[in-house]
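Pinned message: reference record for Short-chain dehydrogenase/reductase SDR
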Amino acid sequence: MKPLSGSTALVTGAGSGIGRETAIALANAGAAILVNDVSGDAARATCAIIGKTGGQATPYVASVADPDAVRALFEIFDDEGKIPDILVNNAGISGNGPTLDLTEESWLRVVGINLNGAFFCSREAARRMSATRKGTIVNIGSIYSIVAAPQRLSYCTTKAAIAMMTKCLALEWADAGIRVNCVAPGYVDSALTRELAAAGRLDMAALERRTPQHRLGKASEIADAVLYLCEPRSAHITGHVLSVDGGWTANGYL
Ligand SMILES: NC(=O)c1ccc[n+]([C@@H]2O[C@H](COP(=O)([O-])OP(=O)(O)OC[C@H]3O[C@@H](n4cnc5c(N)ncnc54)[C@H](O)[C@@H]3O)[C@@H](O)[C@H]2O)c1
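Predicted structure (C-alpha cells):
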C-alpha cells in the first residue's frame, strides 16, 4: 500500500518544472493526479510521463487566475467524481524589473496568478474537503516569502502573501480537518530560472556563491518536501512554511 493510495491530488501549473516533478512524486506515492496547466500541451506531456510508470493522471486546462475557470474546473471534478483531497498551489510566474517601470498590467498578472489563483483554488477545494473532513493544501512560496529582493516587487509581495495565506487558512480550517502548509524553495534549476538567466536577468554564478550549499535546488527536491507535507506522517504539521533553499534564508552573511 502506497502512502497516498486512494487520494486525488490537484497540482496547478503541473506542466513544467516544480509542478511537473510534484505531480510525478505524488503519483509515485499512489495518488491519482489532476494535472492543471494553462498550456494543454504541457499538461498532457506531464500526464504521459506519469502514465508511462503506471500512474494515473488526467490533464485539465484552465488559468488559475480566472475565478470562473477555477469554479468550472471544480464543477468538472464534481461531475467526474474526482474531488481532490490534496491541492498543490504551484502555478506561478516571475515579475522582475524596476518598480518605477512596473505597469498595472504586469502587476495584476503576477498578483492574479501567484496570489489570486491560490485563493480561488483553495476556496473551491476547501468547500469540498470540509464536507469529507479530509484535505491537505500545499502552497509553493519562495525564499521571497521570507526575505526581500530589489526589482521583484510583485513577485516578492505575492510570495510573502502566500506564506501569510498559508497560516490564516491553517488556523481557519484546522477544525474542518484541512491542513495548509507552504514550501518555500530557493532558486531551482527550471524553465523559469533558465529563461531569466538567458535574458540576463539572473546571474547563476552569483546565486551559487550566495547559497551555503553552492548549488541551485532540483525540482525533485522541492517535490519531495511537498510529498512529505501531503502524507499522513506529517498529520500534526499545519501552518508551516518549510524552506528548501540550501541554506539561503539562514544566511545573513555574503
Ligand atoms: N524555479 C525557481 O527557482 C523557483 C524558486 C522559488 C519558487 N518557485 C515557484 O515555484 C512554482 C513553479 O515554478 P517553476 O520554476 O516550476 O516554473 P515553470 O515556469 O517551470 O512552471 C510553471 C507552470 O505554471 C504554468 N502556468 C502559468 N500560468 C498559469 C496559470 N494562470 N494557470 C495555470 N498554470 C499556469 C505554466 O504554463 C508552467 O507550466 C512557482 O510558483 C514559482 O514562483 C520557483
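Pinned by admin. Summary line: The chain is about 45% helix and 15% strand.
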